[in-house]
Structures are given as structure tokens and as C-alpha cells.
From TrEMBL, chains A, B:
Signal peptide: none
One of the Pfam families matching this protein, by short name: NUDIX
Matches recorded under InterPro entries: NUDIX_hydrolase-like_dom_sf (IPR015797), NUDIX_hydrolase_dom (IPR000086), WH-like_DNA-bd_sf (IPR036388), WH_DNA-bd_sf (IPR036390), WHD_NrtR (IPR054105)
Organism of derivation: Dyadobacter arcticus
Residues annotated as domain Nudix hydrolase: 10-170
PANTHER family membership: ADP-RIBOSE PYROPHOSPHATASE, SLR1690 PROTEIN
Protein's UniProt name: ADP-ribose pyrophosphatase YjhB (NUDIX family)
CDD domains: NUDIX_NadM_like
Length: 241, 241
């Protein structure tokens, strides 16, 4: 809620971003907590300037919290129920933070602007978690990675937005070969399998999985990974773009 | 452009629908031609009422031109470039239809409303072409099925919208088992294959194709189709929902 010059934005349109990272057999989502009384969490979001492409707006919003550019990013769903608005959230925010009302942040016009029905374009992003240093913006108390199985309760419909993003990620995984965006530059076949098992939340048979991935014909085999035990060392692979 | 009570709609947000039908080995798109001088074609579109779900708005827009409800319908992409507006189209429309300016339709406020940048949510619909009787609304000169390989040149970015819808249809075809929405109630395996060949614009090997479709385990085999030549008669199938 950083003082949007309201006329510079498209009205009643927002962008919400689900940023996925992967680490240690856990699929994670980057979630800021707002710097107000009341424990408010929300996925990174924002509005679209009149002279800005929506994809650029999503880039900007992602960059604010991750510090990185050139992220794999994709629209996945528009959340557009008539009843979709922030009224409850804002009312609760004000009731727990009554000093806001004396603040220029929440003047009547702004309240009305924010509390209207918003259509929100959902984007999901896939990042190499090692490359992201979570960044706070003015409004944030913290910005942290949460295991997708253990998310905080977020404002408005943001928990549903994450669930829908995960469904889409699963659907797109093979078609679009995007899982490799979640891995570091080089990886073992076992690491790929663990990633898929985490995303789908189920085990795969090792031989079949390996064949399926190699059949995609998108990996380049590199030297063996140094483990100290030469004969058991697994090969490293790299995604061939 | 039927006199939108502008304050009843969400500003700068539109919906555009690509309605696919299939007939005689041709994938077709239902396209209205506007009732003005100048040969203007556009996919069926409209705006979203303040108190209307976006999916409901898409239903309404589809029903206007097809006369049917309960259509398979899916959001596929949001078109949101900053430069996306109707200015060129409207200017050309007015220049070829100067009497419009004397009309209450195009008063200055309406011009400004329509000529602004719009973010458009694209939906595609799959219909059984036999069930649709194309319907004209006030603005239409005609509403006809066009072969996707022979589309008229449409306004704004509507040709791109159709191309993107086709790409998404191809991506989703297997994952979501939606092709059967384009077929009549019962069909032969050959008809399914012809449909897939048309959508992908390439041939499939008969045995592999048949195996792939049967492996989906979504078809129910019925009696043989009556052709007069009993021993060569193909089986009929039905999609099991």
C-alpha cells in the first residue's frame, strides 16, 4: 500500500506472483509478511501502470522481492470473481492499526480505491533458490521462503492462488520442460527425480523416471560428480537451452 | 459498441472469445462481421460488469453469438501490452462511417472510453458445431464459421488472439482430454484421428494413434456404425465424462 498515484494505474486490476523455489526436497514459496500489527501475509503483488505491459509489471514486482531479473515467469490464471475484494482485509488491518487512520496512507479515497473489487492476474515464477536474496520493501516486516505444505494463512484469496499455481506447474512440467529452472546449473539425475517427486508429492520408479527424462533429449551429460568414491559417483547433467 | 453504461463496467478490461468448432476435417472459428462500412471482423468480445464474475461474463458473451449454454470454456491468456488499444480501429471506423459522429453512439466520452488501453482476457470455447446456430447481435452484419487456415483480417490483435488460442488448444489436448467437446455425441476412431490431425495439422500413424486414445481410458465402445457393409463397419465410441 505504498501510496499509488491512483490515476497512474489501471483501476481494479492487480498482479499477484507465486514465486517457487526448491531446496532440500522442499518446494517453497516466497512470502512477505506485512509490517503492521495483525500477522498479515500476502504473495508479492502490485498494480499495472497505464503505460506498462502487464508482463513488465510482473517482472518489476518480482524484482522488488528477489533482487534478480530474467526470471522464468508465466501467467497462469486470472482471479476474477465479482466478490473478490480486499474490504475484509483492510477493515481488519485498520482495526488492528488504528493509527493508520491518522496517517495520509489511508485517506478515504485510498480506502475506496483499495477496497473495490479487483481482477488479479496470477503469475508464477520459478527461481534457483541459491540466486535469490529475499528483499524487503517498505511495507514488509519480513520476506521468507515457506514450505508449500506449511504456508501461513494469507489475505484475501492468496492461499487459493498458490494452490492454483501449483496445479498449473504440475500440468506444465513435462510439456514445457520448466522444472530445470528450479535446479542449480548442474545436477545429478537423482536430484531431478527428487525435484519431480517433491512437486508431484509422490514417488517415481527410478528406471522409468530416468528413461523419461533422458528421452526428453534436453540434458547434456557432463563429468562425474566428485564424491570421493569414484566407482559410485553419479554423472552431472546440465539443461541444454 | 452497444452503449455501455460505462460506470457499470470495469474500466480498461475486456474479454475476447475464440470459439472453435470442427466440421469436415476443418477446424473453424466463429467470427462476427460488424455492421458498418469497412469490413471489420472481430472475435466475440465484451466487458465485465462490476458485479459479474469474469467467467460469467465470458459465458454471456458466448451465449449471445452461439445461442447455447454449458459450453466448454477456458481462460488461456491475458493480452496486456501497454500499446494495446482500439484507437486505430475506431478512427478508421469513424472515417468510413462519418454519420456515426452525429449519432449518440460516439460521443466524446464514449470515444475516450473505447480508445483507451484495454487489458483483454482471452477465453477459448469448444463447441459441437452441429449444436450452434450462429446468432447476430445488433452490431453484426453476419456471424460465420471460418476455417482457421483462412481467417479474415481482424481488428486490433484479434488474429494473434486466435493463434495463441490454437497453440494453447494443442498444448492442452492430451492433458485435459478436451478434444471430445468438438465431436458429436458418438463418433468413430477414424473421426477422432481426423480431428487430431486437423488440430495439429499433421498426420498420425493409425495404430499408434488408436492405442494412444484407447490408453486414455475415457471412451466407451458402443455398437458398430451402420454402413451397409457389415464386416467393415467401424465401432462407435462415446466420451465417458
Amino acid at each position: 500500500m505504498h501510496n499509488p498515484s491512483q490515476q497512474n494505474y489501471i483501476q481494479q486490476l492487480s498482479i499477484d506472483c507465486v514465486i517457487f523455489g526448491y531446496h532440500d526436497k522442499q518446494l517453497k514459496v516466497l512470502i512477505p509478511k506485512l509490517n503492521f500489527n495483525g500477522d498479515f501475509w500476502a504473495v508479492p503483488g502490485g498494480f499495472v501502470y497505464q503505460d506498462e505491459d502487464i508482463d513488465k509489471a510482473a517482472d518489476r514486482i518480482l524484482q522488488e522481492r528477489t533482487g534478480i531479473t530474467e526470471i522464468y515467469l508465466e501467467q497462469f490464471h486470472v482471479f476474477g470473481k465479482a466478490a473478490r475484494n480486499s474490504q475484509k482485509f483492510i477493515d481488519r488491518l485498520i482495526s488492528l492499526n488504528p493509527d493508520m487512520l491518522g496517517d495520509e496512507l489511508i485517506v478515504k479515497a485510498e480506502y475506496e480505491w483499495f477496497a473495490r473489487r479487483f481482477v488479479s492476474i496470477g503469475y508464477y515464477a520459478l527461481v534457483d533458490i541459491n540466486k535469490v536474496i529475499p528483499q524487503k520493501i517498505d511495507l514488509d516486516d519480513s520476506v521468507e521462503w515457506y514450505n508449500i505444505k506449511d504456508l501461513p494463512e494469507m489475505i484475501i484469496d492468496h492461499n487459493e492462488i498458490v494452490i492454483k499455481a501449483l496445479e498449473t506447474l504440475r500440468l506444465n512440467l513435462d510439456e514445457k520442460l520448466i522444472a530445470f529452472n528450479l535446479l542449480p546449473e548442474t545436477f545429478t539425475m537423482r536430484e531431478v527425480q527428487e525435484l519431480y517427486e517433491t512437486i508431484f508429492d509422490k514417488p517415481f520408479a527410478r528406471n522409468n523416471f530416468q528413461k523419461m527424462i533422458l528421452d526428453l533429449d534436453v540434458l547434456e551429460r557432463l563429468e562425474k560428480k566428485f564424491t570421493g568414491a569414484a566407482n559410485k559417483a553419479p554423472y552431472l547433467y546440465r539443461f541444454r537451452k
